[in-house]
Structures are given as C-alpha cells and as structure tokens.
Amino acid sequence: MPHASVPAVPERPASYVISLRPAGEHATLERAAAARGLGLIALSPWRIVHRDDPAARTALAAALDAPVTIFTSPPAVAAAAALMPLAGAEALQRVLEALPGPAARRLRSARVVAASERLADLARASGFAHARAAHSPQPEALLAAAMALP
Length: 150
What we know:
Blueprint lengths: L15 E4 L7 H9 L3 E4 L11 H12 L8 H10 L5 H10 L2 H8 L3 E3 L2 H9 L5 E3 L5 H9 L3
Parallel strand pairs: 1-2, 3-4
C-alpha cells in the first residue's frame, strides 16, 4: 500500500530580526532578512501619522528656511510632501513659491546638494549660487556630498 505524502512543515529560522519600524514599514527589512534565512518579528511601537494643519506647515516652512534641512527617512519626506506636494524638479519651484520673499532669499543663499545634475542645474537657474550634484540620489551620497561642501 502506497504511503500518503505528508505535507512538509516549514523549517523554523535559526535566528530572527526584531523590527521596531513604524507600522507598515517592515517589508524591505523582512525581504532582506528572508534572503539571509532569518525570520522577522514586526513589533511596531508607533504608527506614522501625517499632520496637515497650520502648525505643521509653519514648522516645515521654518525647517526649510534653515541653512541645512535633513530628512532622515522616506516617511519624513512623504510627510513633508503631503504638506507641500513636492516631486522632482517641481519641488524646488513649489517651495520657493510658498515662501515669503525674505525666506526665499535666505533659502537661495544656502548651499545645495541635489540628487542629479539636472536638479543642480535647476537650482542654479532658480537663483542658488552654490549648487552641486551628489554622485547618486541615495541618502548616503547626498549626506557625503553635503559634508564635503566648503
């Protein structure tokens, strides 16, 4: 009499990654862990909530008026973009149009590191005297280029 096949029980990973990323932000880390044979346990201690109120817009305008503004994560960029819809070359124009004259002049005096030569050219055409392109649009490249500015 033939033996019935027994369904395979998936092997339990030997090690796990505990992810404390915000809710809904685990997929990339989960794929990277799985590629290395690791399991992932998602323990989101918070959820990112996009604010759209006058206080948030004022805070973003003040941050954009600073000599250096660093967005630390893709969700931070998404939250800023939700307040001031920014995409590629359109981003700079929208920011400049949204700022009062003195703030726009101050922003134009800042040193700019752009994600591409095209965006650096746009910055120069928009009145930024000191604009250069990073060697790639990756955060590490942008920060390295910014740190190398005179």
